[in-house]
Amino acid sequence: MSFFGLGKLAGIGKQKQLNTSSSSSSSRQHPPLFLRKNHALSHLVKGSFKGVVQQPKYTDLNEWLSINTFEFFNLINMFYGVITDFCTISECPTMSAGPNVEYTWTDTQRKTIKLSAPQYIDYVLSQIQTTLDDERVFPTKIGADFPKDIRATLGVIYRHLFRVLAHIYWSHYTELLNLRIEGHINSLFAHFISFTKEFDLLDRKDMAPMADLIAFYEQQGIIVS
């Protein structure tokens, strides 16, 4: 279900916690724009997303998970497309999500490599698209079964999608404000997190870069566990 009106995976890679105490202190003194109350409360949807994400009666769980995964991928891909001209190798030389978090990529030889944000996101979105198009993983024929490891695959997809969202918030929220679409991405983010909490698709540590915004939305009753 969309409210926005805007028109097998390789290694997940690692989330690196950097030793930047001075940056952390500065971040606390000057919180990012997306944590300012007037911006954070800009939404297209009022109230909780709890009823939106719950599995409807008589719906197969894997089908419900799959339908929403396709939609989240398309929406996040669309939002990244909006800011892609600003997410360049020179502007975003690392795939970061705030001053203390940097993501690395693990290639097919299990080698950890650093990539710029646009390179990392291109890899992520391309691989997710390939996975979503794979009939062995997401069958579309009537009577076809989902693989037994579908939850593991979904976990990888949602961790990657979260990282893209986190990077957009931390590095490109100003562009979203200039375009006056902060309400759109805030609604998408609250919907996405509500869904992952409802079906236990992300660990708490995976959500750490956006923990303050998630906590704020929980206090406001927008995200309900």
Give the radius of gyration.
17 Å
**Largest beta sheet: what is the strand line-up?**
1-3-2
Strand content: 5-15%
Shape: globular
What does the model show?
- By secondary structure, this protein is mainly alpha-helical.
- It is 49% helix and 5% strand.
- The chain has eight helices and five strands; from the N terminus they run βααααββββαααα.
- The strands form two sheets. It has a three-stranded antiparallel beta sheet. A two-stranded antiparallel ribbon has the order 4-5.
- A hairpin with a 5-residue loop joins strand 4 and strand 5.
- Helix 4 (61-83) packs parallel to helix 6 (150-178), helix 5 crosses helix 6 (150-178) and helix 6 runs antiparallel to helix 7 (182-198).
- It starts with 14 loop residues before the first strand and ends in a 6-residue tail after the last helix.
- The model is unreliable at 1-12 and 17-27 (pLDDT under 50).
List keywords for this structure.
3-stranded antiparallel beta sheet; 225 residues; 5% strand; mainly alpha
Task: Produce the secondary structure layout.
Blueprint: E1 15-17, H1 21-29, H2 37-40, H3 50-53, H4 61-83, E2 95-96, E3 101-103, E4 105-106, E5 112-113, H5 117-132, H6 150-178, H7 182-198, H8 211-219
Summarize the structure.
The protein is mostly helical and 225 residues long. The chain is built from 8 helices and 5 strands, in the order βααααββββαααα. Helix content is 49%, strand content 5%.
